Amino acid sequence: MDEIINRLKKVRKGAMFIIEAPSGTGKGTVAKELLKRDSNIKFSVSVTTRAPREGEVDGVDYYFVTDEQYNEFLEQDAFYEYVDSQYGARYGTLRSEVDSFINVGQDVLFDMDWAGARQMRQKAPEDIVTIYLLPPSIKELRSRLENRGTDSKEVIEKRMGIILDKMSHWDEFDYVIVNVDLEETVFKIQKIISGERMKRVRQVGLKGFVRELVKEVEEG
Ligand code: 5GP
Questions:
Q1: How many domains does the chain have?
Q2: How far is the CA of 87 from the centre of ligand 1 (A)?
Q3: Among 65, 80, 90, 112, which is best to mutate for testing ligand 1, by the most ligand atoms less than 8 A from CB?
Q4: SS3 at position 115
């Protein structure tokens, strides 16, 4: 029985989970917790032209690249999706980063904006699951951004300015969670993930499994 279960796991198709939220909603913390608790989810490390914040590690949080390197990726058609010049920096998801996981039944978690989610949905509609986190209040969100202490006042104002625009896209997402409590939010997303894994389209190994069940019946 264990052998069968292991084989079923191997032939499952990975899903792509996109979590989006206005800056300061706690998306990063939620993503870190999910990755820590479930070894079958891999983080898709994006490319960005922005400078690393304190504590951010190249190759872990982002691949930090120059504008020239970013242009080279564009020329090579290396991106699954990309956003140009948002917040004064550019971001992109490398195809190589994603495909190697999905094809061996590992799920991938993305940190990307609604524009990226839209591009991904067009490219791989069956593989994409999108989750939007809303902040409990704008006041809360502003104070979280300020307390983070990683951005200048000017950057915070800029981010606050685009929050309204970002939030207007909440209804393009499959699932919406108001992030009041970290534990609760992580728990809810884990439930979404396990439900999505059970979807027939993702359990590509089922056909063979059912065929074996039928054979067993026929053979008595
Ligand atoms: P930050 O600079 O705060 O890390 O990210 C700014 C915004 O860029 C966030 O909304 C984040 O989700 C988005 N972002 C990060 N990586 C990507 C990516 O690869 N593609 C797209 N479309 N957006 C991204």
A1: 1
A2: 9
A3: 112
A4: helix
CATH code, domain with 164: 3.40.50.300
92 within ligand 1 shell (Cβ under 6 A):
yes
Atom 10, ligand 1: residue with shortest CA distance: 113
Range of the domain at 208: 2-44+105-219
Instruction: Kindly state whether residue 93 falls inside one of the protein's structural domains.
Output: no
33 pocket-lining for ligand 1 (C-beta < 6 Å): no
Assess if residue 209 is contained within a domain.
Answer: yes
Three-class secondary structure of residue 166 per DSSP: helix
- What pLDDT digit, counting tens, does each position of 39-73 carry? 999 999 999 999 999 999 999 999 999 999 999 99
Q: What is the CA radius of gyration of the chain?
A: 19
Which atom belonging to ligand 1 lies closest to the Cα atom of 93? 19
pTM for the model stands at: 0.85
The answer as to whether 78 is a domain residue is: no
Burial of 57 (0-12, 13-18, 19+ CB in 10 A): exposed
63 in a domain, yes or no?
A: no
Q: Is any atom of ligand 1 closer than 6 Å to the C-beta of 113?
A: yes
